[in-house]
Design brief:
Arc Repressor Mutant, subunit A, single chain, 11 strands, alpha+beta, Jelly Rolls
Length: about 350
Amino acid sequence: MDAVSSLREPWQETLFADLLQSIRVRRSVCFRPTFGAPWSSRLAGTVTHFHYVVSGTCWLHVGGMPEPTRLCAGDLVVVPPGRPHTICDSLGTPSADFFELVNAHGADSSGALRAGGCGALTSFLCGALVLENGAANVLMSVLPPLIHVRGRAQSAGMWQEAIAGHLVEELQTGKAYREPVVTRFADILFIQAVRAYLYENAHRVPTGWLAALRDRRVGQAVALMHSHPEGRWTVDGLAKRLAVSRSALAEKFSQLLGEPPHRYLARLRFNIASERLRTTDDKIASIAVSIGYKSLAAFSKAFKHQLGMSPIEYRKIVRLSSANEMTARGNQHSVHVDCAVSGSDLVGQGF
Protein backbone atom coordinates (compact mmCIF):
# COMPACT_ATOMS: atom_id res chain seq x y z
CA MET A 1 0.00 0.00 0.00
CA ASP A 2 1.17 3.57 -0.68
CA ALA A 3 -0.10 7.14 -0.55
CA VAL A 4 -1.79 6.76 -3.91
CA SER A 5 -3.99 3.90 -2.72
CA SER A 6 -4.42 4.86 0.94
CA LEU A 7 -5.32 8.55 0.57
CA ARG A 8 -7.64 8.97 -2.38
CA GLU A 9 -10.46 11.08 -0.95
CA PRO A 10 -10.83 14.34 -2.94
CA TRP A 11 -10.04 16.49 0.10
CA GLN A 12 -6.91 14.42 0.75
CA GLU A 13 -5.69 14.75 -2.83
CA THR A 14 -6.33 18.51 -2.71
CA LEU A 15 -4.23 18.86 0.45
CA PHE A 16 -1.38 16.87 -1.10
CA ALA A 17 -1.46 19.05 -4.21
CA ASP A 18 -1.56 22.25 -2.12
CA LEU A 19 1.43 21.07 -0.10
CA LEU A 20 3.57 20.29 -3.13
CA GLN A 21 2.60 23.56 -4.82
CA SER A 22 3.63 25.48 -1.70
CA ILE A 23 7.24 24.30 -1.97
CA ARG A 24 9.48 27.05 -3.26
CA VAL A 25 13.23 27.33 -2.87
CA ARG A 26 14.24 30.96 -2.63
CA ARG A 27 18.00 30.57 -2.66
CA SER A 28 20.54 27.77 -2.92
CA VAL A 29 24.25 27.06 -2.64
CA CYS A 30 25.69 23.85 -4.09
CA PHE A 31 29.02 22.05 -3.75
CA ARG A 32 30.52 18.93 -5.31
CA PRO A 33 32.90 17.46 -2.72
CA THR A 34 34.95 14.32 -3.22
CA PHE A 35 36.27 12.82 0.00
CA GLY A 36 39.01 10.23 0.37
CA ALA A 37 38.98 7.95 3.40
CA PRO A 38 39.37 8.70 6.21
CA TRP A 39 37.01 11.67 6.24
CA SER A 40 34.13 13.13 8.24
CA SER A 41 32.26 16.39 7.70
CA ARG A 42 29.69 17.98 9.99
CA LEU A 43 27.01 20.52 9.08
CA ALA A 44 24.58 22.51 11.17
CA GLY A 45 22.18 25.45 10.83
CA THR A 46 18.68 26.60 10.08
CA VAL A 47 18.54 25.83 6.36
CA THR A 48 17.45 22.71 4.54
CA HIS A 49 20.26 20.48 3.26
CA PHE A 50 20.40 17.79 0.59
CA HIS A 51 23.14 15.30 -0.23
CA TYR A 52 23.17 13.17 -3.37
CA VAL A 53 25.76 10.38 -3.44
CA VAL A 54 27.30 10.38 -6.90
CA SER A 55 29.67 7.50 -6.20
CA GLY A 56 30.96 5.49 -3.26
CA THR A 57 29.38 4.83 0.14
CA CYS A 58 29.22 6.64 3.47
CA TRP A 59 27.42 7.02 6.79
CA LEU A 60 25.03 9.81 7.76
CA HIS A 61 24.17 10.63 11.35
CA VAL A 62 21.41 13.20 11.99
CA GLY A 63 21.09 14.83 15.40
CA GLY A 64 18.14 13.45 17.33
CA MET A 65 18.00 10.19 15.40
CA PRO A 66 19.08 7.07 17.31
CA GLU A 67 20.86 5.26 14.49
CA PRO A 68 23.12 6.32 11.61
CA THR A 69 22.05 5.71 8.02
CA ARG A 70 24.13 3.93 5.40
CA LEU A 71 24.20 5.68 2.03
CA CYS A 72 25.15 4.26 -1.36
CA ALA A 73 25.63 5.67 -4.85
CA GLY A 74 22.35 7.08 -6.17
CA ASP A 75 20.90 7.78 -2.73
CA LEU A 76 19.43 11.20 -1.99
CA VAL A 77 18.87 12.54 1.52
CA VAL A 78 17.16 15.73 2.65
CA VAL A 79 17.72 17.08 6.17
CA PRO A 80 15.21 19.76 7.28
CA PRO A 81 16.24 22.96 9.09
CA GLY A 82 17.64 22.77 12.59
CA ARG A 83 19.12 19.29 12.24
CA PRO A 84 22.90 19.15 12.69
CA HIS A 85 24.32 16.14 10.91
CA THR A 86 27.56 14.41 10.01
CA ILE A 87 28.53 12.48 6.88
CA CYS A 88 31.61 10.25 7.08
CA ASP A 89 33.40 7.21 5.77
CA SER A 90 33.41 5.55 9.20
CA LEU A 91 31.49 6.38 12.38
CA GLY A 92 34.74 6.58 14.34
CA THR A 93 36.44 9.19 12.13
CA PRO A 94 36.90 12.62 13.81
CA SER A 95 34.79 15.25 12.05
CA ALA A 96 35.66 18.67 10.66
CA ASP A 97 33.33 21.55 9.87
CA PHE A 98 32.28 21.45 6.23
CA PHE A 99 33.22 25.05 5.54
CA GLU A 100 36.58 24.69 7.18
CA LEU A 101 37.20 22.00 4.58
CA VAL A 102 35.91 24.28 1.81
CA ASN A 103 38.24 27.07 2.88
CA ALA A 104 41.20 24.77 3.42
CA HIS A 105 40.91 22.87 0.15
CA GLY A 106 39.60 25.62 -2.12
CA ALA A 107 36.41 24.74 -3.96
CA ASP A 108 36.56 25.79 -7.60
CA SER A 109 34.00 27.88 -9.46
CA SER A 110 31.73 24.86 -9.96
CA GLY A 111 31.77 23.98 -6.27
CA ALA A 112 34.12 21.01 -6.70
CA LEU A 113 36.68 20.23 -4.00
CA ARG A 114 38.84 17.31 -2.88
CA ALA A 115 39.46 16.60 0.80
CA GLY A 116 40.25 13.78 3.20
CA GLY A 117 42.83 11.02 2.93
CA CYS A 118 44.15 8.72 0.22
CA GLY A 119 41.65 5.91 0.72
CA ALA A 120 38.40 5.00 -1.04
CA LEU A 121 36.66 7.96 -2.68
CA THR A 122 33.07 9.12 -2.19
CA SER A 123 31.65 11.94 -4.32
CA PHE A 124 28.59 14.08 -3.63
CA LEU A 125 26.37 16.81 -4.90
CA CYS A 126 25.44 18.80 -1.79
CA GLY A 127 23.20 21.79 -1.39
CA ALA A 128 21.79 24.22 1.14
CA LEU A 129 18.31 25.59 0.48
CA VAL A 130 16.44 28.56 1.90
CA LEU A 131 12.70 27.98 1.55
CA GLU A 132 10.13 30.70 1.14
CA ASN A 133 8.13 31.60 4.27
CA GLY A 134 10.56 29.87 6.65
CA ALA A 135 8.92 28.60 9.83
CA ALA A 136 5.47 29.70 8.64
CA ASN A 137 5.55 27.11 5.85
CA VAL A 138 3.16 24.25 6.58
CA LEU A 139 5.74 21.98 4.98
CA MET A 140 7.83 22.25 8.15
CA SER A 141 5.19 20.26 10.05
CA VAL A 142 5.29 17.49 7.44
CA LEU A 143 8.97 16.70 7.05
CA PRO A 144 10.61 14.05 9.21
CA PRO A 145 14.15 14.49 10.62
CA LEU A 146 15.44 12.78 7.49
CA ILE A 147 14.12 11.98 4.03
CA HIS A 148 16.07 9.12 2.50
CA VAL A 149 15.23 8.24 -1.10
CA ARG A 150 17.24 5.19 -2.13
CA GLY A 151 18.61 5.07 -5.62
CA ARG A 152 17.13 1.66 -6.21
CA ALA A 153 13.70 2.53 -4.77
CA GLN A 154 10.66 2.34 -7.03
CA SER A 155 9.67 5.89 -6.07
CA ALA A 156 13.06 7.18 -7.22
CA GLY A 157 13.00 5.88 -10.78
CA MET A 158 15.44 7.82 -12.95
CA TRP A 159 14.68 11.32 -11.67
CA GLN A 160 17.41 11.59 -9.04
CA GLU A 161 20.27 10.89 -11.44
CA ALA A 162 18.71 13.00 -14.19
CA ILE A 163 18.09 16.11 -12.08
CA ALA A 164 21.44 15.83 -10.31
CA GLY A 165 23.11 15.50 -13.71
CA HIS A 166 21.44 18.67 -15.02
CA LEU A 167 22.39 20.51 -11.85
CA VAL A 168 26.04 19.48 -12.06
CA GLU A 169 26.15 20.40 -15.75
CA GLU A 170 24.82 23.87 -14.97
CA LEU A 171 27.40 24.31 -12.20
CA GLN A 172 30.23 23.27 -14.50
CA THR A 173 29.36 25.37 -17.54
CA GLY A 174 29.88 28.75 -15.90
CA LYS A 175 27.14 30.32 -18.01
CA ALA A 176 25.79 33.76 -17.18
CA TYR A 177 22.66 33.86 -15.03
CA ARG A 178 23.17 30.31 -13.85
CA GLU A 179 22.08 30.99 -10.24
CA PRO A 180 18.31 31.00 -10.92
CA VAL A 181 18.66 27.88 -13.07
CA VAL A 182 20.63 26.06 -10.37
CA THR A 183 18.05 27.08 -7.78
CA ARG A 184 15.18 25.80 -9.92
CA PHE A 185 16.91 22.44 -10.39
CA ALA A 186 17.47 22.30 -6.63
CA ASP A 187 13.80 23.19 -6.21
CA ILE A 188 12.78 20.25 -8.41
CA LEU A 189 15.15 17.87 -6.61
CA PHE A 190 13.65 18.89 -3.27
CA ILE A 191 10.01 18.65 -4.33
CA GLN A 192 10.63 15.23 -5.88
CA ALA A 193 12.20 14.04 -2.63
CA VAL A 194 9.20 15.29 -0.65
CA ARG A 195 6.80 13.62 -3.09
CA ALA A 196 8.74 10.35 -2.83
CA TYR A 197 8.52 10.55 0.96
CA LEU A 198 4.76 11.18 0.82
CA TYR A 199 4.32 8.32 -1.63
CA GLU A 200 6.17 5.83 0.55
CA ASN A 201 5.07 6.91 4.03
CA ALA A 202 1.53 8.30 3.91
CA HIS A 203 0.11 5.04 5.20
CA ARG A 204 2.53 4.27 8.03
CA VAL A 205 3.85 7.33 9.90
CA PRO A 206 2.35 7.36 13.43
CA THR A 207 2.16 11.14 13.90
CA GLY A 208 2.44 14.34 11.89
CA TRP A 209 0.63 15.84 8.94
CA LEU A 210 0.45 12.57 6.99
CA ALA A 211 -1.02 10.70 9.94
CA ALA A 212 -3.52 13.53 10.37
CA LEU A 213 -4.72 13.05 6.82
CA ARG A 214 -5.41 9.39 7.52
CA ASP A 215 -7.64 10.33 10.44
CA ARG A 216 -10.97 11.40 8.98
CA ARG A 217 -11.84 13.80 11.81
CA VAL A 218 -8.50 15.59 11.99
CA GLY A 219 -7.88 15.38 8.25
CA GLN A 220 -11.17 17.01 7.37
CA ALA A 221 -10.58 19.69 10.00
CA VAL A 222 -7.26 20.47 8.30
CA ALA A 223 -8.98 20.46 4.91
CA LEU A 224 -11.59 22.95 6.11
CA MET A 225 -8.89 25.35 7.31
CA HIS A 226 -6.98 25.07 4.03
CA SER A 227 -10.08 25.62 1.92
CA HIS A 228 -11.24 28.62 3.98
CA PRO A 229 -8.27 30.08 5.88
CA GLU A 230 -10.25 33.26 6.52
CA GLY A 231 -12.82 31.33 8.56
CA ARG A 232 -13.16 31.94 12.29
CA TRP A 233 -12.25 28.37 13.02
CA THR A 234 -12.30 27.22 16.61
CA VAL A 235 -12.29 23.73 18.07
CA ASP A 236 -16.00 24.14 18.82
CA GLY A 237 -16.75 25.29 15.29
CA LEU A 238 -14.77 22.52 13.67
CA ALA A 239 -16.30 19.88 15.92
CA LYS A 240 -19.85 21.06 15.12
CA ARG A 241 -19.10 21.18 11.39
CA LEU A 242 -17.76 17.62 11.48
CA ALA A 243 -20.35 16.35 13.99
CA VAL A 244 -17.71 15.01 16.38
CA SER A 245 -16.81 15.48 20.03
CA ARG A 246 -14.98 18.74 20.77
CA SER A 247 -12.65 17.16 23.31
CA ALA A 248 -11.90 14.16 21.10
CA LEU A 249 -11.08 16.39 18.13
CA ALA A 250 -8.86 18.70 20.18
CA GLU A 251 -6.96 15.81 21.73
CA LYS A 252 -6.46 13.91 18.47
CA PHE A 253 -5.47 17.05 16.54
CA SER A 254 -2.74 17.95 19.04
CA GLN A 255 -1.62 14.34 19.31
CA LEU A 256 -1.13 13.96 15.56
CA LEU A 257 0.08 17.44 14.59
CA GLY A 258 1.87 18.48 17.77
CA GLU A 259 -0.07 21.74 18.08
CA PRO A 260 -3.69 22.83 18.61
CA PRO A 261 -5.89 23.91 15.70
CA HIS A 262 -5.52 27.65 16.34
CA ARG A 263 -1.72 27.48 16.02
CA TYR A 264 -1.91 25.40 12.86
CA LEU A 265 -4.38 27.90 11.41
CA ALA A 266 -2.09 30.81 12.29
CA ARG A 267 0.88 29.24 10.45
CA LEU A 268 -1.32 28.48 7.46
CA ARG A 269 -2.53 32.06 7.32
CA PHE A 270 0.96 33.53 7.55
CA ASN A 271 2.16 31.17 4.86
CA ILE A 272 -0.56 32.48 2.54
CA ALA A 273 0.09 36.09 3.53
CA SER A 274 3.84 35.76 2.99
CA GLU A 275 3.32 34.42 -0.52
CA ARG A 276 0.98 37.26 -1.46
CA LEU A 277 3.35 39.85 0.00
CA ARG A 278 6.15 38.41 -2.14
CA THR A 279 4.32 37.82 -5.38
CA THR A 280 1.58 40.47 -5.61
CA ASP A 281 1.06 44.20 -5.16
CA ASP A 282 -2.11 43.62 -3.16
CA LYS A 283 -2.70 46.07 -0.35
CA ILE A 284 -1.68 44.72 3.02
CA ALA A 285 -5.11 45.52 4.44
CA SER A 286 -6.69 43.42 1.70
CA ILE A 287 -4.36 40.51 2.46
CA ALA A 288 -5.23 40.79 6.14
CA VAL A 289 -8.96 40.56 5.47
CA SER A 290 -8.51 37.64 3.07
CA ILE A 291 -7.00 35.47 5.80
CA GLY A 292 -9.47 36.39 8.52
CA TYR A 293 -8.10 39.48 10.28
CA LYS A 294 -10.58 42.27 10.96
CA SER A 295 -7.96 44.99 11.23
CA LEU A 296 -4.59 45.79 9.69
CA ALA A 297 -3.16 46.49 13.15
CA ALA A 298 -4.08 43.05 14.46
CA PHE A 299 -2.63 41.37 11.38
CA SER A 300 0.60 43.36 11.52
CA LYS A 301 1.10 42.57 15.20
CA ALA A 302 0.50 38.84 14.67
CA PHE A 303 2.67 38.74 11.54
CA LYS A 304 5.57 40.39 13.35
CA HIS A 305 5.22 38.00 16.26
CA GLN A 306 5.38 35.01 13.91
CA LEU A 307 8.02 36.15 11.38
CA GLY A 308 9.98 38.72 13.36
CA MET A 309 9.12 41.70 11.16
CA SER A 310 6.09 43.67 10.03
CA PRO A 311 4.35 42.91 6.70
CA ILE A 312 5.71 46.15 5.24
CA GLU A 313 9.26 45.28 6.30
CA TYR A 314 8.88 41.75 4.96
CA ARG A 315 7.74 42.95 1.54
CA LYS A 316 10.55 45.51 1.32
CA ILE A 317 13.25 43.04 2.38
CA VAL A 318 12.09 40.31 0.03
CA ARG A 319 11.87 42.64 -2.95
CA LEU A 320 15.19 44.32 -2.16
CA SER A 321 16.79 40.91 -1.86
CA SER A 322 15.33 39.86 -5.22
CA ALA A 323 16.59 43.05 -6.86
CA ASN A 324 20.06 42.56 -5.42
CA GLU A 325 20.10 38.96 -6.66
CA MET A 326 19.18 40.04 -10.19
CA THR A 327 21.95 42.66 -10.11
CA ALA A 328 24.46 40.09 -8.92
CA ARG A 329 23.35 37.64 -11.57
CA GLY A 330 24.19 40.20 -14.22
CA ASN A 331 27.84 39.50 -13.49
CA GLN A 332 28.64 36.14 -15.02
CA HIS A 333 31.75 35.88 -12.86
CA SER A 334 29.62 35.76 -9.72
CA VAL A 335 29.55 32.15 -8.55
CA HIS A 336 27.98 30.15 -5.76
CA VAL A 337 31.27 29.36 -4.10
CA ASP A 338 32.38 32.98 -3.88
CA CYS A 339 29.07 34.05 -2.38
CA ALA A 340 29.00 31.14 0.04
CA VAL A 341 32.52 31.37 1.38
CA SER A 342 32.34 35.15 1.72
CA GLY A 343 29.38 34.83 4.09
CA SER A 344 26.01 34.72 2.37
CA ASP A 345 22.88 34.16 4.44
CA LEU A 346 23.17 30.44 3.67
CA VAL A 347 26.51 30.15 5.34
CA GLY A 348 25.38 32.40 8.14
CA GLN A 349 22.64 29.91 8.82
CA GLY A 350 25.15 27.09 8.99
CA PHE A 351 25.34 25.26 5.67
